[in-house]
Amino acid sequence: xxxxxxxxxxxxxxxxxxxxxxxxxxxxxxxxxxxxxxxxxxxxxxxxxxxxxxxxxxxxxxxxxxxxxxxxxxxxxxxxxxxxxxxxxxxxxxxxxxxxxxxxxxxxxxxxxxxxxxxxxxxxxxxxxxxxxxxxxxxxxxxxxxxxxxxxxxxxxxxxxxxxxx
Amino acid sequence: xxxxxxxxxxxxxxxxxxxxxxxxxxxxxxxxxxxxxxxxxxxxxxxxxxxxxxxxxxxxxxxxxxxxxxxxxxxxxxxxxxxxxxxxxxxxxxxxxxxxxxxxxxxxxxxxxxxxxxxxxxxxxxxxxxxxxxxxxxxxxxxxxxxxxxxxxxxxxxxxxxxxxx
DNA sequence: CGGAATAAGTTGACGTTTCAACCTATTCAG
DNA sequence: CTGAATAGGTTGAAACGTCAACTTATTCCG
Lengths: 166, 166
Fold this sequence. Notes:
By secondary structure, chain A is mainly alpha-helical. Chain A is built from seven helices and three strands. Chain A has a three-stranded antiparallel sheet with strand order 1-3-2.
């Protein structure tokens, strides 16, 4: 219906993967750790930052989510005592910081989760496959990353261009 | 944290792809056609069936969704007049059938949607990439497809085995 | 044949995501 | 310096997905 056969077949497979895989991971984390895959991702991202903290807008980029979503998620994680909000020294910035309790939880959940990732992904693929997967997804992402990554200058330019043209 | 470097990098990219890509497609379809990507998938699947109808349980497999989700979605699509429920000749089976209105809508939306798919996916990749993508996702799916696909015999056997062992 | 187990579907409640509206600190242009 | 625009964030409502409970038809087994 506007894709050739080769593309159509690839598309069906890709579709199935990105429907089934997140569902599988979400479901396992939910059952065995009481958190969503997204929440896990946020906490894992925080754990790798100096001071285990990050400003929400940056967290949004790292976790591939909207600012609104991040705000909600951080609220939930705060309720669990795994994360705490720390208003940044300057301006309206808000930082999310992983608490000790959160860090402990993460250390506990990590192995469980990654065992599942290994089972579902890396055990199934050869090292070759992994290399290809990395290469191809990396290409796809380049086209998917929103204009955020044009850098401040390009963004500013683009913004005024839009303004002028309206 | 339990993945080696190569795997970790691949994992981050894969994660970003299957977060960003569905989000992008969903958002475009929602804006320009007032339907979700999943709904589109369901209607597209129906359109390829003889009589443009399919039993819900089969639709669930084709669309990679739970039966419950399908039931809800079909209700929504029914409200739009794009799909109608037809109780199967035999038994408790329920079929979903694409209406003419639904077909028309689909024909209208299809090109718009696939243009976006092309833009985000196939324009970015070489034919080589597409081949690899198909190959790797197909492998992943093999491990992801739930036990549904063991086939009726294996399923029955497995079921009684479980029963006996409890 | 008769009851237990199972398959197919529906439903309602609950939690999550998205979207739009909003707020307020900061920056920029004139 | 002042007002407009923008960046960062929050919030509430509506839409959506998941889960568990439930219903009814069918099949299996003794």
